[in-house]
C-alpha cells in the first residue's frame, strides 16, 4: 500500500463513527455479564482453585497467599474486564459494516468470530502452556462463550 497524504484520514475514518457513550455503556454491560457469569463459574469450579498441585499456576496478584483474592486483585480484574468490553466494542465498530445486516445473523456471526478468536489465542495456548485441569479450561471456555454471545447481542442491539 502506498502512503499518500489522504492515508491517515482513510485509516481512522471509522473512529469518527464511534458513539463513545454507547460504547462505554456496552463496556459496562460486558463488565456486568462477565462478573456475574465468571462468579458462577468460579463457584462451580472452586475445587480446582483449591488444589495444592495448581497453587503455582495462579499469579501473586490473584493469590499472594492462601484464601480469597485481595481487594487489589478485584480492582485490577474489574478494570481489565471493563477494558476488554471496550476493546470488543471497538472491534465491533471496526468490522460492523462487514457483518450481515439481519439482527440474529449479525449477532451470531460476530459472536462466532470472537469465540473462535478466543479459542485460538487463549484456550489452545493455555492448554499447552500451563498445568491446568482440562475441566477448568473447559469451564473457562464455556463461560467465555456465554459472555461473548451476550456481548455480541448487546453490541448489535445498542450500537446498530
Task: Tell me about this structure.
The chain is mainly alpha-helical. It has one domain (18-159). It is 71% helix and 0% strand. The chain contains 5 helices and no strands. It has helices at residues 7-11, 20-49, 71-95, 103-129, 134-159. α2 packs antiparallel against α5 (134-159).
Gist?
By secondary structure, the chain is mainly alpha-helical. It contains 5 helices and no strands.
Keywords:
single chain; mainly alpha; 5 helices; 71% helix; elongated
Give the class from helix and strand content and strand pairing: mainly alpha
| SSE arrangement, N to C | HHHHH
Describe the largest sheet: none
The count of β-strands is 0
Question: Span between N and C termini?
Answer: 31 Å
The average pLDDT is: 90
Q: What overall geometry do the principal axes of the alpha carbons give?
A: elongated
Number of helices: 5
Helix content: over 70%
The structural domain count equals 1
Q: How much strand content do the residues show?
A: under 5%
Uncertain regions spanning at least 5 consecutive residues: none
Gyration radius over CA = 18 Å
Record the SSE blueprint.
Blueprint: H1 7-11, H2 20-49, H3 71-95, H4 103-129, H5 134-159
Helix pairs in contact: 2-3, 2-5, 3-5, 4-5
Amino acid at each position: 500500500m502506498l502512503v499518500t497524504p489522504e492515508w491517515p484520514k482513510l485509516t481512522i475514518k471509522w473512529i469518527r463513527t464511534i458513539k463513545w457513550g454507547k460504547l462505554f455503556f456496552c463496556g459496562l454491560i460486558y463488565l456486568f455479564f462477565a462478573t456475574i457469569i465468571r462468579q458462577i463459574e468460579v463457584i462451580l469450579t472452586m475445587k480446582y482453585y483449591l488444589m495444592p498441585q495448581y497453587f503455582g499456576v495462579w499469579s501473586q496478584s490473584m493469590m499472594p497467599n492462601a484464601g480469597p483474592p485481595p481487594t487489589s486483585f478485584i480492582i485490577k480484574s474489574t478494570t481489565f474486564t471493563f477494558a476488554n468490553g471496550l476493546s470488543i466494542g471497538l472491534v465491533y465498530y471496526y468490522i460492523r459494516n462487514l457483518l450481515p445486516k439481519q439482527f440474529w445473523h449479525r449477532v451470531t456471526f460476530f459472536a462466532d468470530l470472537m469465540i473462535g478468536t478466543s479459542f485460538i489465542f487463549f484456550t489452545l495456548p493455555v492448554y499447552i502452556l500451563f498445568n491446568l485441569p482440562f475441566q477448568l479450561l473447559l469451564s473457562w471456555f464455556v463461560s467465555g462463550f456465554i459472555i461473548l454471545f451476550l456481548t455480541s447481542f448487546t453490541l448489535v442491539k445498542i450500537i446498530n
